[in-house]
């Protein structure tokens, strides 16, 4: 039986990933000054606008607009012609202190509040969310093969942009890899590779296809099981000039599970 498994990854300039990085940068800054801080920071982006919101309880000061702008510039959105610019975009902050009612669940554990003096757990949990995941032996990273290759393609795409090898690239991008498994559940071959990247309006589709195959796909996949039937699609829509927050809104966490662990 032929079984296919597909996973996708996105580059740092993808709208949702921009939001995740801004939120993480704010968290890192606050925790570096106040390890006991509580930070629930959400971010949304759209054309020329960043909204930072949430509940933060801390004794330190965080320059949220400055952190936000620097993160955007580090990603590569540092000039207006890219459709999004860390220097000129609007940054709106709406930060409140954590609800005292929610804090009750975090300050002390349920057992401690109930008078169980023998219980050593004094810190509670503020949420009842559950996560799950698993490790597998398909790769050295103990992650499924398809998501590992997709991540490596996304990182290579970013590296070629930032080191100037492919100066027509822009920060937004997505990679997708489909792996075929044999009847014993082992990796047989790469069935399909898709790479979509934001680019300069001056570059031709022919150059994009040639350069991405030479500098992005082959360096990553040359030692993986590909054959003459492996399908490669590069910017299959034909044009990707408008991207990032100008092309699509973004939110923290909206696709973090898919982009980090891979959809099925």
Stretches where pLDDT falls below 50 for ≥5 residues? none
Question: How many strands, which pairing sense, and closed or not: the largest β-sheet?
Answer: 4 strands, mixed
| Biggest sheet: strand arrangement | 1-7-8-9
Question: What overall form do the CA principal axes indicate?
Answer: globular
Going by helix content, strand content and strand pairing, the class is alpha+beta
> What is the chain-wise order of helices and strands?
EHEEHEEEHHHEEHEHEH
Determine the N-to-C terminus distance. Answer: 17 Å
Mean of pLDDT: 86
Question: Main attributes?
Answer:
four-stranded mixed beta sheet; 8 helices; 264 residues; alpha+beta
Structure description:
The protein has helices at residues 15-33, 64-75, 100-107, 110-113, 145-162, 205-221, 244-247, 256-261, and strands spanning 3-10, 38-46, 49-57, 78-79, 84-85, 90-96, 169-181, 187-199, 231-234, 250-251. The two termini are 17 Å apart. The relative contact order is 0.20. With 264 residues, the chain is an alpha+beta fold. It is 33% helix and 26% strand. The strands form three sheets. A four-stranded mixed sheet has the order 1-7-8-9. A four-stranded mixed sheet has the order 6-3-2-10. A two-stranded antiparallel ribbon has the order 4-5. It is globular, with a radius of gyration of 22 Å. Helix 1 (15-33) crosses helix 2 (64-75) and helix 5 crosses helix 6. It has eight helices and ten strands. Strand 2 and strand 3 (49-57) form a beta hairpin.
Topology, element by element:
Layout: E1 3-10, H1 15-33, E2 38-46, E3 49-57, H2 64-75, E4 78-79, E5 84-85, E6 90-96, H3 100-107, H4 110-113, H5 145-162, E7 169-181, E8 187-199, H6 205-221, E9 231-234, H7 244-247, E10 250-251, H8 256-261
Parallel strand pairs: 3-6, 8-9
Antiparallel strand pairs: 1-7, 2-3, 2-10, 4-5, 7-8
């Amino acid at each position: 039986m032929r079984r296919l498994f597909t996973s996708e990854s996105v580059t740092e300039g993808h709208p949702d990933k921009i939001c995740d990085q801004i939120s993480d940068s704010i968290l890192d800054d606050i925790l570096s000054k106040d390890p006991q801080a509580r930070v629930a920071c959400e971010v949304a982006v759209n054309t020329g606008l960043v909204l930072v919101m949430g509940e933060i309880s801390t004794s330190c000061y965080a320059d949220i607009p400055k952190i936000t702008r620097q993160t955007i510039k580090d990603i590569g959105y540092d000039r207006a012609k890219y459709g999004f610019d860390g220097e000129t975009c609007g940054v709106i902050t709406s930060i409140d202190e954590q609800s005292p009612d929610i804090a009750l669940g975090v300050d002390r554990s349920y057992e401690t509040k109930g008078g169980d003096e023998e219980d050593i757990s004094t810190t509670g949990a503020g949420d009842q969310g559950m996560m799950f995941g698993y490790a597998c032996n398909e790769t050295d990273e103990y992650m499924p093969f398809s998501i590992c290759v997709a991540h490596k393609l996304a990182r290579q795409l970013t590296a070629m942009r930032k080191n100037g090898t492919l100066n027509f690239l822009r920060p937004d991008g997505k990679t997708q890899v489909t792996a075929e498994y044999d009847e014993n559940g082992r990796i047989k071959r790469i069935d399909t590779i898709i790479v979509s990247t934001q680019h300069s309006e001056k570059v031709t589709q022919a150059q994009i296809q040639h350069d991405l195959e030479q500098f992005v796909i082959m360096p990553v996949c040359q030692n993986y099981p590909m054959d003459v039937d492996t399908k490669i699609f590069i910017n299959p829509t034909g044009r990707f000039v408008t991207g990032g927050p100008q092309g699509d809104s973004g939110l923290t966490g909206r696709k973090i599970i898919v982009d980090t662990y891979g959809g099925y």
